[in-house]
Specification:
With 259 residues, this protein is an alpha/beta fold. The protein contains eight helices and eleven strands. It has a single domain, classed as Alpha-Beta Complex (Spore Coat Polysaccharide Biosynthesis Protein SpsA, Chain A). The strands form two sheets. A nine-stranded mixed sheet has the order 1-4-3-2-5-8-6-9-11, with helices on both faces. The chain is globular and about 45 Å long.
Length: 259
Amino acid sequence: MREKDPQPFAENPSISVVVPAYNEEERLGDTLPVLYAYLKDHDPQFELIVVDDGSTDRTPSIVQEFAQQHPEVRLLSYQPNRGKGYAVRTGVLQSRGEWVLFSDADLATPIEELANLAAKLQEGYDIAIASRAVQGAKLVVRQPWYREFAGRSFNLMVQLLAVPGIHDTQCGFKLFRQEAAREIFSRCEENGFGFDIEVLHVALRLGYRIAEVPVHWLHREGSKVRLLRDAVRMFIALLRISRRHHSLQPTVQGSQHVP
């Protein structure tokens, strides 16, 4: 893996935003200015890390061109493609911010929702996750009915096997305190779409306090999740995650999940 022309803006940014990207040339031209403008306006001491997960299109070039004019932006790039979980983990473990957010490149959860998650960390929680499944959430543009049904069914299984009480593990917008992020992600190994479950499973077992925050959410076309193929893979990942971390003991006091 290599970092392309790093240009550190702040030695200790207050927040790092990590965006995993695999063949996102059609989205990043719009996404990066939106993220940058919001962060610049609300917290000038930030870094925006885009992790190019072995893209075969112009994803790294687009990010590099943007970074040349915006020193707060960093591009981490490697080959070959290794999966979203690997990309997020890479960005989080190289982040320097006091808080760390990871956000999907499609901005299905608008960056403006960061304020609502940040409020929970300010209240004392270690992790705040965006949720489409708790009271107060608003699905501005809904997924097709079969995806919603599959998602609800899958979450019941996820709660049973890995993350009791958490209603939406898969929303790609999660905020962590840096110390929690490092301890959690350094223990994780899932490279595929099951990584969110492993992250939250490990967080609960270690005793971190998690707030599940209702958000506005918009379905975006172009999801790389394939229902039948990935449902089987994620079920196998669930079993693997549960087995991998079965002996993990709490390292912090006051574990609590708040919907």
